[in-house]
Design goal:
466 residues, mainly alpha, two-stranded antiparallel sheet, 2 strands
């Protein structure tokens, strides 16, 4: 296991080198400028689409805009926001949060392009069902000769969307915050983790074997509540430590360009750490969210791209920032013994002695389960693309089995495997999006022209009293 862990860490570090950073961050800046900052100019329209103003139940697809964003956020607003941010700050210091913000802003433009394409170039699986995602974008948009690149994405997706990180961190927080302080653990750590893992398998199975409609419905109910609960908890921490807020932001900005607190001046390393954790947090450029948004009920690709671009803002700018502030304001980031979700739990308990860690347990449980539900959908889509849709249910058995592996493995091995596979998924996703970006802009010009004409016609009718 030690040798496997060392190999996974080497693979992950090699994958997340400067070439991938240029592809993700550079590609995101290209999308931002090429689109004329479109994600920010049409933010209000995106919110109206999300509210269901333009929903048509007869449009092709499986779930509405709100359910698509909720299900995608159920995967992104998860352990990456709580544990992932803690890992990032432990590795790169407070300044890593700044580079996560930068990645999120350019990620909004990336999400707009990749998710517009996921609807624009939807394909059909082996049983004729309409599907979306980078593999179908590549094959349908770029042509059959690009199919090896599509298959490469699907293979990486089989492993990159495994629930092992969520299972690992949920197990850790339940064990360290709930069980151990109350004397409910066995002397053998492995069996405690195994028991928790099996319980997670049972609960997850109840939802994921119901398909995308059940996943979308459950996510649509749980995601808004979990975000609000988490925000209220961190707002309380900020209120208790309000005098330290200016210093916290000053530390973030200072450390972002000096990296003195942890990395000894290695600014390049802190940028990579920020981009790496932001990609895990909001999945911009990775391609997983494109699979979920590709299932939306719409025949307007641009409309879904606008909804999708809200994801990085909610996920990273809002939720990740809250986690980072909780850790920095309470001084927990300087605790070298805390790791992952334990660091965030310590921050909550420092601010809310006696019950803060239990508040986090509730948040973590909801965050983790919604991620567990949504990730299974991504994996089944990759599996059905490679082996046929009639066999995709077999992937779910493999999926729930890996929950046990995640619950019992070390966090180092788990993060390295997921990070490495995310890097592999980003390559075909970003390459195809960059090549097809002119198609998106042509569709965007057509869409906004039609929307402008529609508004003008509506105003004329209202003026005439029609």
């Amino acid at each position: 296991m030690k040798a496997l862990e060392e190999f996974l860490v080497w693979f992950s570090d090699a994958a997340w080198g400067m070439p991938l950073l240029i592809l993700l961050m550079g590609g995101g800046f290209y999308f931002m400028f090429y689109s004329g900052f479109l994600p920010f100019r049409y933010l209000r329209h995106a919110i109206n689409v999300l509210r269901g103003k333009y929903d048509d139940p007869d449009d092709p697809g499986d779930i509405n805009h709100f359910e698509a964003l909720s299900a995608a956020l159920a995967a992104t607003v998860g352990m990456g926001n709580i544990s992932g941010v803690a890992v990032a700050i432990a590795i790169g210091g407070p300044g890593v949060l700044f580079w996560m913000w930068v990645s999120a802003f350019v990620g909004m433009a990336t999400k707009f392009f990749t998710c517009s394409l996921s609807v624009m170039y939807r394909g059909h699986d082996s049983v004729g069902h309409l599907e979306g995602g980078p593999m179908y974008v590549i094959e349908t948009g770029l042509g059959k000769k690009w199919k090896p690149l599509a298959a490469f994405f699907a293979i990486a997706g089989l492993f990159g969307t495994l629930p092992i990180f969520q299972a690992n961190q949920l197990t850790q927080v339940i064990r360290e915050v709930v069980l151990e302080p109350n004397g409910f653990t066995t002397t053998d750590l492995f069996y405690t983790n195994l028991t928790i893992g099996l319980v997670l398998v049972f609960i997850t199975s109840l939802v994921i074997f119901g398909g995308i409609q059940r996943i979308g419905h459950v996510a649509g109910k749980m995601v808004p509540g979990m975000v609000v609960l988490y925000m209220l908890a961190v707002f309380y921490i900020m209120f208790v430590n309000y005098t330290a807020i200016p210093d916290a932001f000053a530390l973030i900005f200072k450390d972002a360009f000096s990296a003195q607190t942890v990395l000894g001046g290695a600014v390049g390393a802190i940028i990579i750490a920020g981009a790496r954790r932001a990609a895990f947090s909001n999945e911009a450029g990775i391609g997983t969210a494109s699979m979920m948004h590709g299932a939306a009920k719409t025949d307007e690709p641009i409309r879904e791209g606008l909804v999708a671009m809200l994801g990085p803002f909610i996920d990273t700018i809002v939720v990740c920032t809250l986690t980072g502030l909780a850790i920095i304001l309470t001084g927990t980031w300087q605790d070298t013994d805390a790791s992952g979700v334990t660091m965030t739990a310590t921050a909550f308990n420092n601010a809310m002695p006696g019950f803060g860690s239990y508040v986090l347990v509730v948040c973590v449980t909801i965050f983790a389960f919604t991620s567990l539900f949504s990730y299974s959908y991504y994996g089944t889509k990759c599996f059905s693309y490679l082996f046929g849709a009639k066999y995709k249910h077999y992937y779910n058995y493999f999926y729930v089995a890996t929950i046990v592996f995640g619950a019992t493995a070390t966090i180092t091995a788990v993060i390295a495997l997921i990070d490495g596979m995310y890097a592999m998924m980003a390559i075909p996703t970003m390459v195809s999006a960059l090549l097809l970006s002119p198609k998106v802009m042509a569709a965007a010009r057509d869409y906004f022209t039609r929307m402008k004409e529609f508004r003008e016609e509506t105003k004329e009718k209202e003026a005439k009293g029609v």
